[in-house]
């Protein structure tokens, strides 16, 4: 059995998830990367001395099989970071039902699928575990053009609170991190005007770095947050307060 803590990061092949995987690996965890992008997942995992599994979080049978394989190899899962997420933006009035459902399926049902399998098959048995769900500030304040995405992230925050209450007696903590605008490939590509509008709305006057989201996750899976569960830690340079 793997003696290190096993940390599973969904959508860990690139972006914020990759940075979280790097951070947890640097702190002594074995990083297990789950992603639909098989090649990128393998490259990220190889660089961290971890493992990669190709799975779509919205497909419960693929999630179930993947979780079985991880437990067979590592014996347990100590940390789960539900980070996989997508956007399919358009104005609410023009949004197709398909785009609404697909974003909910990945961003919200995906968190349910992965958490339920990991909690049932490992964390409950070991009477310990930490789950961190990556939400977004738009799940708190909404955002034009993101009806599907903001609804999914609001759902993630509510799911986090309920899981925390149900699982606290089993010594399993469940928290969320809600990033604001983080410098990733997605935000790099935005037109200069849009970037300037974002910046003027951020009290700290700059985008966040993926490492600053990873730092919040690191805190929430550490003993420093041992009495914290059901919370949403906002990482946004001061946009959402209270
Ligand atoms: P990204 O697109 O760079 O990375 C997302 C990863 O998830 C990719 O590797 C992708 O292949 C994977 N993925 C997508 N669908 C999947 C599926 N069905 N099953 C498994 N893996 C899947 O995105 P990012 O910017 O790094 O965002 C990571 C998380 O942070 C997301 O949940 C996102 O909603 C959230 N977030 C990002 C920002 C931001 O500014 N970038 C802000 C708030 C919240």
- How many β-strand stretches? 7
**Strands in their spatial order, largest beta sheet:** 3-2-1-4-5-6-7
User: Are any ligands bound, and if so which?
Assistant: nicotinamide-adenine-dinucleotide
Overall geometry: globular
Proportion in β-strands: 15-25%
Average residue pLDDT: 96
Secondary-structure element series: EHEHEHEHEHHEHHHE
Low-confidence stretches: none
The helix-and-strand class reads: alpha/beta
Radius of gyration: 17 Å
- Outline the biggest β-sheet: 7 strands, parallel
Overall helicity = 40-55%
User: In whole angstroms, how far apart are the ends?
Assistant: 44 Å
Q: Please report the number of helical segments.
A: 9
Overall description:
The protein has 242 residues and is α/β, with parallel strands linked by helices. The protein is 48% helix and 15% strand. The chain has nine helices and seven strands; from the N terminus they run E-H-E-H-E-H-E-H-E-H-H-E-H-H-H-E. It has a seven-stranded parallel beta sheet, sandwiched between helices. Strand 1, helix 1 and strand 2 form a beta-alpha-beta unit. The protein binds nicotinamide-adenine-dinucleotide. The site of nicotinamide-adenine-dinucleotide has 29 residues, from helix 1, strand 2, helix 4 and helix 7.
């Amino acid at each position: 059995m793997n003696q290190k803590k096993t940390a599973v990061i969904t959508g860990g092949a690139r972006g914020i998830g990759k940075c979280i995987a790097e951070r947890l690996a640097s702190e002594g965890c074995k990083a297990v990367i789950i992603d639909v992008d098989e090649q990128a997942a393998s490259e990220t995992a190889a660089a961290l001395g971890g493992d990669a599994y190709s799975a779509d979080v919205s497909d419960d049978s693929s999630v179930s099989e993947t979780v079985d394989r991880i437990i067979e190899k590592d014996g347990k899962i100590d940390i789960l970071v539900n980070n996989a997420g997508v956007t399919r933006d358009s104005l609410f009035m023009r949004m197709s039902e398909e785009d609404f459902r697909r974003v909910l399926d990945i961003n919200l049902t995906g968190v349910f699928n992965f958490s339920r399998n990991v909690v049932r098959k490992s964390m409950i048995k070991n009477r310990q575990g930490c789950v961190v769900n990556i939400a977004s500030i738009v799940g708190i304040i909404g955002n034009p053009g993101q009806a599907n995405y903001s609804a999914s992230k609001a759902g993630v925050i509510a799911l986090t609170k309920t899981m925390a209450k149900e699982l606290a007696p089993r010594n399993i903590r469940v928290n969320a991190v809600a990033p604001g605008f983080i410098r990733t490939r997605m935000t790099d590509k935005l037109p200069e005007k849009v970037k300037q509008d974002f910046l003027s709305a951020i009290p700290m006057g700059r985008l966040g770095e993926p490492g600053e989201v990873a730092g919040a996750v690191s805190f929430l899976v550490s003993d420093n947050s041992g009495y914290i569960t059901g919370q949403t830690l906002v990482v946004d340079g001061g946009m959402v307060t209270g």
